[in-house]
Amino acid sequence: xxxxxxxxxxxxxxxxxxxxxxxxxxxxxxxxxxxxxxxxxxxxxxxxxxxxxxxxxxxxxxxxxxxxxxxxxxxxxxxxxxxxxxxxxxxxxxxxxxxxxxxxxxxxxxxxxxxxxxxxxxxxxxxxxxxxxxxxxxxxxxxxxxxxxxxxxxxxxxxxxxxxxxxxxxxxxxxxxxxxxxxxxxxxxxxxxxxxxxxxxxxxxxxxxxxxxxxxxxxxxxxxxxxxxxxx
Amino acid sequence: xxxxxxxxxxxxxxxxxxxxxxxxxxxxxxxxxxxxxxxxxxxxxxxxxxxxxxxxxxxxxxxxxxxxxxxxxxxxxxxxxxxxxxxxxxxxxxxxxxxxxxxxxxxxxxxxxxxxxxxxxxxxxxxxxxxxxxxxxxxxxxxxxxxxxxxxxxxxxxxxxxxxxxxxxxxxxxxxxxxxxxxxxxxxxxxxxxxxxxxxxxxxxxxxxxxxxxxxxxxxxxxxxxxxxxxx
DNA sequence: TAGTGGTCTAGACCACTTT
DNA sequence: AAGTGGTCTAGACCACTAT
Lengths: 232, 232
Known about the structure:
Chains A, B: This is Histidine utilization repressor. Chains A, B: Residues 1-68 form the HTH gntR-type domain. Chains A, B: One of its GO terms (molecular function) is DNA-binding transcription factor activity. Chains A, B: Pfam families: GntR, UTRA. Chains A, B: It comes from Pseudidiomarina maritima. Two copies of one chain form a homodimer. Chain A is α+β, with helices and mostly antiparallel strands and 232 residues long. Chain A has two domains: 2-68, Arc Repressor Mutant, subunit A (Orthogonal Bundle); 80-221, 3-Layer(aba) Sandwich (Chorismate lyase). Chain A contains seven helices and ten strands. Chain A has helices spanning 2-15, 28-34, 39-51, 80-86, 105-111, 158-165, 182-187, and strands at 24-25, 55-58, 62-65, 91-102, 118-128, 131-140, 170-178, 196-205, 208-218, 224-229. In chain A, the strands form two sheets. In chain A, strands 4-5-6-9-8-7 form a six-stranded antiparallel beta sheet. In chain A, β5 (118-128) and β6 (131-140) form a beta hairpin. Chain A is elongated. The relative contact order of chain A is 0.12. The interface between A and B is large, with 38 and 35 residues.
């Protein structure tokens, strides 16, 4: 597709840092000439980048690389280890489970594999200054991440490893408030059950479903935040 | 705009229930003739509806009303009344409180006004098929929305009214899991406290902070969802 | 085979911003 | 006045789906 070649070109300029925040992006007409396409095709590339929050367009003025904050922290696939370290707190991971299990009906459906297919399963708690702030129960499609069980998840998070072996193309999230199971209470070192924030996430790469994860945060120790700006 | 008239037309068909889930939507060519526009313009209307998740398009087959998941997108600032109606469920609002109150220290800080300044305060529950799914406690900067107390919030949501009088330029969110207060339990008609999803939202317009809202959802009746794609 | 959505073209006019 | 993005047109070819 012609428009996606143009998007790719602009995306690489931004990703490489060659075009920093607020740097002007080539105009529709300039791109049309440069890529030998009609203006409508160049326009589509810029429009989709704007919809994705990568650039800001202003009538009469031009198109500019978006400030990072408007790339939305909500949408970002966050890495909890990086976030904790960014707060200059100690990060630590405890690996409770790391093995192959047969897929239950529910897991099979989520991962789009046949029931009873062996899949990888891990349970890891993430600690901030020694206090568990998230338990991560994760099922992984073994066809996509064959070496999953060999990783040392005290050193690298599953998210980091999976991003490396199977670049994300798609993700879905569900956020809800729940009462934690007794298992989760133990992993989170909760003496009594308390309301927990549960994030259920499924991610895809080109090869299909990569992973199905249930992330549970104690309500007393975790807030999910975001900031959005709407600039014309 | 011509394309938005077409969107409006299709939206009303879906919202009214005239076109239920999976009902075929008029084709690009049909809409182009009906609305006396070019196919590209009709196409844009359908494309934007697809981007918003209201319709599904299949090459060679056609465009269909999307299955309505009981999920709320957390990407966009949405209107709960529209979402409930989009699911073809009954929407109803109960106004529990609507008056002026002096700003407490916390509220004054959030709204960036002096403590004890009179501010507007409302408590409204939103019901889906008669069941409360959200209680909305809201403080409003009276300088920005002078007629707030005169509105009938059974007919228009505070979000709709505020969007009209003070277009959003910025918003921040916090999402957490909490045990509801006894007040909130009453508003939500919860016999026993259960984990609730609490969304705290502050919004700005050009004139400054518009509103500070605490939205509480019963965990058993609400899931916040989102879907992202990363296309080249 | 007829209809559909997906992509693309080469123009056009407008409102807006910048110089 | 020149350039930019926003909207729109009237065609075109393609791949896909349904019949």
